[in-house]
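Might I ask for a little of your time on a matter of protein folding? The record follows directly beneath this note:
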Amino acid sequence: VQLVESGGGLVQPGGSLRLSCAASAFTFSSYIMSWYRQPPGKERELVATVTSGGDSTNYADSVKGRFTISRDNAHNTVYLQMNSLKPEDTAVYYCNARGRVRNYWGQGTQVTVSS
């Protein structure tokens, strides 16, 4: 099983990034997909979730209206579009796949928002 995140990097405040998470070796379309993040020196926190069919999403209050989670079940990929980025969005972002029995994590991608 693999979850491979990409798309992180350094961006100025107010900028945008799009994270991708490519999944393999499990039935992607049966799993709820989420993005988590862990800011420096803090606990990991839930950012956004999308249901297995992509019909419902949820967001942390801190990112509502700025971030959009989506998925492409045909290509086993989940995305996180991040707009109007703030310095407090700086963190390692992790992709998570949650099934009825199993739970998988990616290795994380660094997002740094700084001028």
